[in-house]
Every structure is written in C-alpha cells, then in structure tokens.
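Fold this complex.
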Amino acid sequence: MKHISASDIEKMEKIFRLNLINSCTGFKSANLIATKSKSGNPNVAVFSSVTHMGSNPAMLGFVTRPLSVSRNTYKNIKETSYFTVNHIHEKMIEQAHQTAAKYDEDISEFNKTGLTEEYLGDFHAPYVKQSEIRLGCRYLNEYEIKENDTLLVVAAIEHIYFDEGIQMPDGWLRLDDAGTVSINGLDGYSLPSLLDRFHYARPNQEVKSFFTREADL
Amino acid sequence: MKHISASDIEKMEKIFRLNLINSCTGFKSANLIATKSKSGNPNVAVFSSVTHMGSNPAMLGFVTRPLSVSRNTYKNIKETSYFTVNHIHEKMIEQAHQTAAKYDEDISEFNKTGLTEEYLGDFHAPYVKQSEIRLGCRYLNEYEIKENDTLLVVAAIEHIYFDEGIQMPDGWLRLDDAGTVSINGLDGYSLPSLLDRFHYARPNQEVKSFFTREADL
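Structure:
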C-alpha cells in the first residue's frame, strides 16, 4: 500500500492535492442548489457536500466558501432564506457539471446549461425540473469553520417532492430507482446500484437483509 | 410527484421519518471510524456523514451525537485526539453494518464482526485491515450544532493509505476500482460505477470528458 504523510500532502502540487483529498473521503452526494436573489436573478450550482444533519427536526447542512464560485448561492440564501436541493441524475451530469463554470452574477446558469427552473407552491426559490427528488429548504444558521474559513450552512427541510414509485412502505427512498448519482472527487460522476439493505443491527444477531424472501427460509 | 410538507414531516411516525429524511439528501459516504481508548480498548463504528472540508490544509468532518451508539468513538477521540477513517467495500457491508449494534463499552466490535485491527507506524488508532483506502486523522475542533444538539467534529488528514493502482496521474483516486460503496439512507449499501469524469467547467465551453480518446477527435 502506498503511504502518504502529512508532510507529503503539504508539499504536493495544488491540483494533485485537490484531486487526492477530494476523493479520499469516499463518494459524495450529488446535488444542485438553486436560489433566486431578492431582485429576481435565479442561480443554480453543483454541490457535493450536502449532508444529513438530523431527522427530527428534518435538517441538512452543506459546506461553502463565502467567496467561491458558489458565492451567488450563499448571497441569495442570506438575502431570502430559501433554497432548493435537487438530486443529480445520470441524464443530467454534463449540465450539472457546467453549473460550476464562473458565469457573471447576472447570468442564470439555468439559461446556460439547459436546466429548467420550476416554481412549486409559493416557494421563493426555483426547483430544477429535471430532478426527480427535490427539497425545499429554509436557512437556519451557519457555523464558521475557523480552521479553513469555510461555512457550514444548516437548514430545515420544509418540502420534499419525489415520484411515489421510489418510496418503500417504511418511508425509505430507493435512490437507484431514481437514477441519482454520487460524486467521486471534484469531477467524477458515478451511478450507484443497490447491493443490499439490512435490518437494524443487534449484538450477537446475524445481519438480516430486507430482501431475504420467505421462500428462502 | 408526491409532495410532503413540513407539517407532514412533523406528524410522521418516527421510523418512517428516519427512513425518508435519511435518504432524501442523496447518497452518503460509507466509512468505518476506528479508535482506541486511553486504556487500550479498540472501537469501530459505521458512519455515513464523513465529508470533505478542504484540501489545504487537508481536512474532513463528521457529524455525531455525543450520547448515541457512537459515543465510544467520540469519547476515544476526545481522550486521544486520533482516529482512522476506513472505506467500506462491497465485500464487507455485513460486517460494517453489524458495527452499529449497541455492544457494551468494553466489547470490541473488531472481535464481534470479523473486521481486523491493524496498527501502522506509531499511529495510536487502529486501521481496518480489510479497507483499501484508509486515513489517519487528528482531532482539530468541534462545533456544536445547537439546532439539534449534534456535533460536527473537524479533523486533519495526516496519513493516507491506498493501493497505487487506483490513483490516476493527476492525484484522483478512482473509487470504483477500490469497490468503495455508498450508503442509501440508514441501511442501504450501494455500489457506484463511474459514468464519466469531466474537465474544469468554463463559461461558454462544452463540458469535456477525461475519457474522450484522441482517435475520436
């Protein structure tokens, strides 16, 4: 096995380090965050840091740099409190990746990428029409990560839209039925397929699959 | 499309809500965090919240509840500052899931699940021998998420171990070559395969794949 130490990481060429460190923590979630400024400019950008924060209350978080390419996303959320999280699927990985280009602030990535904005109910922020799982979120708080000047934005999940066919009777959404992708590093898009789903683990009991049929017993 | 509102979420039965909210943010990273207490008890537990926090300095974060099943992980990290992050692969999803069972504090999940502890260099915390991508991490800080009493633990990545064959010349680790899995909700284990990898996006330029061969041009 190759071993890379802290001092190797420090001395690395910048892009090499970006690629290695972004891929070494495992697969990441693949989402488009969409917002609309107070003055009406929509914005959509790819994020790989959206993370489950808790179920009750339903919350998620994501990491951003206030002055990065995603600055419009952050500015619009601070102005309006609202944003949407939209899954990226196999059919739209090129369009999703293109949202990372540094467009001027008054240019909508929706126009430039072929992604379609859709407004649902009276929610301020646009959803991405091509997305099959969409969340309407409300800003709650932010935590400044002082070790590297990033921000963890924490939000409430207030609306969930999805095709009923991907939900199992116990509430679980089967994401490979929606064709949701995951991100490998900064720029790799992968399609997961379900291997197995297991029941709650208990000491001294074998792990039990959800898919073991009665007939097998 | 089915629409679920904030008040629907609040009124949901607890397990149904856990399944829905844990799966609606997309695929999650699949890692085993391993620690050893000051008195020498090893511990290993599955985590789906490990997230890239930055490349320079190389940092990751994960979310935990101080009093959850993962309390031993947190306690050991606070006592010793060190922990490892070990990718979960297709061949070990049952063992990884079993680490979530509520064993007594003095019982090592390594003994109970068949996962093997391995010590590398003079690093205090054990690595998981079955894991093909392993990170040695040092605690830096924690942020209390006051909206739901969870903690974001932030750590420096100080060691990286992997098989050289999965690294591309630009530093990127191809995770599907390692058979790394991703997690769907609380208990679904999925195997991603790479669809494509794209070059840096620029305004008014088409998205370019890394895999377009010269011969195709």
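The CA atoms of residues 156 and 165 of chain A lie 25 Å apart.
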